[in-house]
Design goal:
The chain is of the alpha+beta class. The protein is built from five helices and three strands. Strand 2 (about 60-65) and strand 3 form a beta hairpin. It comes from Thalassospira marina.
Length: about 110
């Protein structure tokens, strides 16, 4: 079971195609470093770092320092085991006190 903030954080992190791709790459390849992921995705290292940070804050990936093939220090990322089952019941269990309810200023009407 997830709490409301964890569920929201994970859903937000997984709502971007690049971040979904990163999770898939890491699940297939194991541990990869930032530069490798950025090259494979065709995006800049700073942009890849931003995506990885969002995944890390959601608890979906973790990072360790190590040495890349060229001998330089690098941050290696890998998937953190997680299971995200999304049903009306799991949403209700994650939000028992209705803390996800929109605030007055958040309304669309």
């Amino acid at each position: 079971m997830h709490d409301a903030q964890t569920l929201l954080s994970q859903l937000q992190a997984l709502s971007h195609p690049v971040r979904l791709w990163v999770v898939a790459m890491l699940a297939r390849e194991g541990e990869l470093y930032v530069s490798h992921l950025a090259r494979e995705a065709g995006i800049s290292r700073p942009l890849m770092k931003m995506h990885l940070k969002k995944l890390e804050l959601a608890g979906l990936v973790c990072c360790e320092s190590g040495l890349a093939e060229n001998g330089k220090a690098a941050n290696f990322y890998r998937v953190t085991p997680f299971a995200l089952t999304l049903t009306p019941e799991t949403i209700a269990q994650a939000d028992p006190d209705a803390s996800l309810a929109p605030h007055q200023g958040d309304r669309d009407d």
